[in-house]
Specification:
2 copies of one chain form a homodimer.
Chain A (H helix, E strand, L loop, with lengths): L7 E4 L7 H7 L2 E2 L3 E3 L14 E3 L3 E4 L3 E4 L9 E4 L2 E2 L6 E10 L4 E9 L5 E10 L6 E9 L5 E8 L12 E9 L3 E8 L5 E12 L4 E7 L2 E10 L5 E11 L6 H15 L1 H19 L2 E3 L2 H17 L25 H14 L1 H13 L1 H10 L22 E3 L5 E3 L2 H4 L3 H16 L2 H22 L1 E3 L4 E3 L17 H24 L1 H10 L4 H12 L35 H9 L11 H7 L6 H11 L12 H12 L2 H12 L16 H15 L21 E8 L2 E8 L5
Antiparallel strand pairs in A: 1-9, 2-3, 3-4, 5-6, 7-8, 7-13, 9-10, 10-11, 11-12, 12-19, 13-18, 14-15, 15-16, 16-19, 17-18, 20-25, 21-22, 23-24, 25-26
Helix pairs in contact in A: 4-19, 5-6, 5-9, 5-19, 6-9, 6-10, 9-10, 9-11, 10-11, 10-13, 11-12, 11-13, 17-18, 17-19, 18-19
Chain lengths: ~725, ~725
């Protein structure tokens, strides 16, 4: 395998059977907008989407969702009266490549129409990292084996919905000259206007006739040409999207920019795009020599985070399915802070800051949620979107049409600590004291305020309890004293002391102002570390932490007796049934041990892993589980076992291991594989004031190379087997 | 007021404020399809719908719904670059008329564009009663006061959804010659294909240039012409809709027919349409001389039933909102049999038969429902659509987003008796023994089978009970021995004996075959009348029938103390709260007295009305209530009070009295006003083998004229004050 091949995702057959899986796999984007890997000619049952960060609209049940935009890359090619479409005729050759080095998606297909007209068509498209509003398409028809008329229609296809639900109203449309047009739409409830424009150019050997159809909702540029065997047709479609989140007049701004971009041309835009990609990869790339599959698949996972990561806007974040599908409707979970952010903190700290600022901007929503539930401070939404208001659906429909109550929005309360954890990590890695002073400290104190108000004093045991929560293991609902939640709450209260002491020293003016703003006083802050020390945690005699009160009393069952299976343990036993067992959806105690690894000794970690691993539904539980499990195994367990789990995690989306890749990229997993490599196999540690590594590389891995950002420097690591322990 | 005016519904101002109300009011149709009164030029927040009978598709919550078709009458007119649209520029004159004599909807508007271009545009459209697939539009632009270019686009606008939800996938589109095109779509779940075609012709004084835009989802004929002051532009758009319920190739059939209809022309089609309307009105019209308001409004109500009444198909029925809006999603309730059918039975018996045959065709669904609930025979769906399967939503979302369980689909069980009641009435009026033999008897026996299995024997009282139902008064759920349900069940069991005796005599072969088919034997049938006689009914000492067990013990509250109000008593007290009171949503005991009036003496009826009237939420309860109340008042109460209630009922939709006319015509109310007039004021009675009248006309009504179908004859009645008692 050549190095280039490790930078490419290939497809050599038209995916008739697994179309929607491949649509997700070939998602591209530039951090402003992103499109699934649909085909330019469109198919009736496709699930083509283009999402623009921050463009949400109201929807039943799920409250708010990212809005699907018109498919900017759509183009219709006709050989006489036959429409180019791979579901009819014969496919004589087919290749699709995603170039991860520059985000260029190329398809080359030789097709014979049902009536025998043959040609080769190549489509190339990318979403420009150097101009966030720009999507460029180039097509070329050659090796033409017939004589006749070819017509091409390039539309801005306004007929678009989220699956079946429409979000847009029509505002305006029009054209500029012969070759450019725009469509302006507005989301029905949130009133966000969007301008989508195109500038189209087609060149054929014998010239071509162009016309504009001002069809309502569907401005269309059309091109008509007579061709003969051996002729060649080339064309470009430059599209631009602006919304009223960006500018006042998105329609005309988009139209003007499309015209000027088409003057600049496809190749030059691609070069500029390539430059940005090169600089992104310079910091973010990981090389695994000796394991091409891992090397390429790991790069693919990081690629999918980079195409979704907002470099331009600090009021948005990355959803649980990036911008690549309808799963979770674009909502943001702890997946971002705990699973994705470490990758960005240590390789793209500016993007990481944007994501943390998103949480800062959503503090009003978090405060409202705390108040509504009778608590103080800020309680971040379990599912968060444009405003930080809680947008977890209360009810979802089960497979039999029954209604299932979703409790996470009410009682999955570790999310607030997770946000603080990411802030600490960012601060530690970057030393960005300005962020901490102006924004971070406010989040930390507001979170501590929340947890302090959330604790319930138990006089008989003289300890604090947190009752009625859901931990990371969502198989068990309404549990008391979930170890993860208690430990993370404790950690927040302790960390608040560190922030307090630092801020007071750094700027007593800011400190005083912040306390005033939050209606706090120093006496209250001083109570927090003491409260932290009295939060209950039940540890068994063997050092195993009990996941929640009563967990040890539940039934144990050997997962092996249920193999082979293709569904989660919750699906097998039911929402109620699974609660009777010790089965867990993902690491929960082990997750706490991972995040707070400085608090526990190696022996205790190993004992807890030995206890919880056989109880964890790693194959069909949460997709968040395997990466954490693999990281811990690489550090404390069998490194070959870690490698096997790592490899299957890397292929989650490329091979649709969990069957739900059609809903979008598993963003947490895609981000967390960076942690498996860097915190797991390389054993990166930060506790002594600077990063150093304790590698444990599996067999066959000759070299692992990556860079880590540390206080405004990029520190390269180059680990080989010899160096590894 | 001239006689013509009593055949016209007028609007003299562009309805900016009550757009969606007027959309419902100006609904037209021809029994095959129907369109709300949207405007040809379209408005962003319009709720334009075109529904075709029987074309349902799956939808969340409501299970199935009528599918909105492309707006066939859409047309876009541009004066230079200014789009004709009444929300900009100046409206110098405006008139819209609905001619109830022939279903022609005409609008004439003089408009000055924002840049000062002025002209008068007239639109006329109708849906052809003589060719059910045909919708015709004619437009004329004259009194032109500017010079320049006019362009007109006539599209088949495939961008259509049910409110926000999309039902269609694109199948095909194309054109024929310069002026005609078609679009073929398919419903996503039910797979019904629809072909929608147009043939467009535009004539201008200086000729015009036409072109076809084959825009995806939006085939568009375009016309471009240069005009000067004094010029005149005329055009027609003939549209045709076929579905795969009608023909195999709906697209091409529709295209061919549009072409030939445009050859026939607008005027000739209108004449043919007029002929059918004349014959419909010949039997269905009612004249009220001396009260123009009542005369016109009554005609409007009957008009709305006639445009929705299927003359061509016996597998469909009329939904609770006809084909005029999204309310109740096109589902069919008891509204059809009890409120609408008497009008059709006595004036359009062939249509009445189609509607009863619809119930026959849905027997499999009714049998499945009975079986599923553990009963025998046939239990008709409370809400019924294409198949007769129960399609009442189980849950709906309340105003605060809370989920409300809807129990009607489970336990509102009088519907089956209501169907039988309509069969009896149809049979009695028409003497259609063939229907009764081949279809009616099967429904009657299947219904009796159901009620017999539904009865619960109570040994201590030696009587049958029906527990846990909802009666017509839906304010009270889960009641025992609802008088209406018990009486109607009793009536079915008794009527089954009459049918048995008749069928045995008429054709013992058919009788035996039917018993075999239904797995019945004569011993079982013989038990039914005996069971009927033992069904419990609680009557108070004063002759007042208790609506259900325990009703008399509920709290009484004077409705007057709650006035003025603009919402139902259920909205005021809540779903749970209202159950604690004697308030009722609509006549329940009085409804039984109305339907089974032969069973009760005048005094008992009067006493029950005196008791229940003050307890009935006539203003904001069910829209089904006032017409029954008015009928009973006209017969047994104060005829002037009856008139007042009748008049407000007639204006339910014309004046949007209940605030929900935007959801569609109140079909039950629209049909039942015929009963108020004929059974109420005219006092039509059928009990002595032929119809005769006992009129009680209110003051000012000089003459009431109508015809009643009786055993293949149309009997005219001409009642004047002198004749009335």
């Amino acid at each position: 395998m050549t190095p280039t091949e490790n930078w490419t995702i290939k497809e050599s057959e038209f995916p008739k059977e697994n179309y929607s899986h491949k649509e997700t796999v070939f998602t591209i984007g530039n951090g402003y907008f992103s499109s699934r890997g649909g085909f330019e000619e469109g198919y009736p049952d496709e699930n083509a989407t283009t999402f623009v960060h921050g463009v949400f609209n109201d929807v039943p049940v799920y409250k708010t969702e990212l809005v699907n935009f018109p498919t900017w890359y759509a183009i219709c090619v006709n050989f006489e009266d036959e429409v180019f479409n791979l579901s009819s005729g014969k496919i004589l050759a087919y290749d699709r490549d995603l170039n991860m080095a520059n985000g260029l998606l190329t398809r080359r297909v030789t097709w014979q129409s049902p009536q025998g007209r043959q040609a080769t068509i190549q489509f190339e498209r990318f979403m420009n990292m150097a101009n966030l509003h720009h999507g460029a398409l180039r097509f070329c028809i050659d090796d033409i084996r017939f004589e006749g008329q070819v017509s091409i229609q390039a539309a801005i296809p306004g007929v678009v919905s989220n699956e079946r639900y429409r979000h847009w109203r029509h505002i305006n449309q029009g054209r500029y000259g012969e070759n450019s047009s725009f469509l302006e739409l507005e989301t029905m409830e949130t009133g966000i206007r969007a301008g989508i424009s195109q500038a189209v150019h087609v060149n054929a050997d014998n010239g071509c006739q162009c016309a504009y159809w001002d069809a309502h909702w569907m401005p269309t540029q059309t091109y008509l040409m007579d061709i003969k065997p051996g002729d060649r047709i080339e064309g470009t479609k430059h599209c631009v999207i602006y919304t009223s989140r960006d500018v006042d007049q998105p329609g005309s701004v988009a139209l003007n920019e499309a015209v000027s971009l088409s003057d600049i041309g496809f190749d030059q835009s691609l070069q500029e795009n390539q430059k940005v990609w090169t600089s992104l990869w310079d910091n973010s790339n990981i090389t695994i020599e000796g394991d091409d599959c891992a090397d390429r698949a790991l790069r693919y996972n990081l690629f999918q985070i980079l195409v979704a990561a907002p470099r331009h806007d600090d009021t948005i974040s990355i959803g649980a399915k990036t911008l690549s599908g309808y799963g979770y409707r674009g909502h943001v979970f702890w997946d971002t802070e705990i699973f994705i952010l470490p990758f960005l903190i240590f390789t793209q700290p500016k993007i990481a800051k944007n994501l943390l600022m998103y949480r800062y901007h959503t503090l009003p929503g978090a405060r409202a949620k705390a108040k509504e539930q009778g608590f103080e401070g800020a309680m971040f939404a379990w599912e968060s979107a444009a405003t930080g208001e809680e947008v977890t659906p209360k009810w979802v429909t089960g497979p039999e049409g029954e209604l299932i109550r979703v409790w996470c929005g009410d009682i999955e309360q570790h999310i607030t600590a997770d946000v603080v954890y990411a802030i600490k990590q960012y601060w530690q890695a970057t030393g960005d004291d300005a962020f901490m002073k102006n924004f971070g400290a406010e989040i930390v104190f507001s979170a501590a305020q929340f947890y302090a108000s959330r604790l319930e004093w138990q006089p008989d045991t003289e300890s604090y309890h947190i009752r009625n929560v859901i931990g990371p293991d969502e198989y068990h609902e309404h549990v008391d004293n979930n170890a993860f939640t208690n430990l993370m709450g404790k950690w927040v209260l302790e960390f608040s002391e560190e922030v307090k002491d630092w801020l007071k020293t750094e700027s007593s003016r800011l400190y005083t102002a912040l306390l005033k703003k939050l209606n706090l006083n120093e006496q209250v802050l001083d109570l927090w570390p003491e409260m932290a020390s009295k939060i209950t945690l039940h540890v068994g005699q063997d050092g195993v932490i009990e996941q929640f009160e009563g967990y040890f009393d539940l039934a144990f069952k050997d997962q092996g007796t249920l193999e082979p299976r293709d569904q989660s343990l919750q699906s097998i036993f039911g929402v109620e049934g699974v609660q009777q067992y010790q089965f867990i959806k993902q690491p929960d105690v082990v997750m706490a041990l991972y995040l707070l690894r400085g608090w526990f000794d190696r022996q205790q970690i190993i004992e807890n892993m030995a206890f919880y691993t056989p109880r964890t539904d790693l194959s069909f539980g949460s997709s968040l589980g395997p990466s954490i499990q693999a990281t811990m195994l690489a550090r404390y367990g069998d490194v070959e076992e870690a490698k096997a789990l790592f490899l299957s995690t890397l292929l989650t989306d490329l091979e649709n291991n969990r069957g739900n890749t059609p809903d979008g990229i598993h963003a947490a997993s895609a981000g967390a594989v960076w942690q498996v490599t860097v915190f797991g196999f390389a054993g990166l540690s930060l506790n002594e004031g600077k990063p150093y590594v304790h590698p444990r590389l599996p067999q066959g891995w000759e070299r692992v190379g990556f860079k880590v950002h540390w206080k405004n420097r990029e520190i390269p690591f180059d680990i080989n087997q010899k160096y590894a322990l």
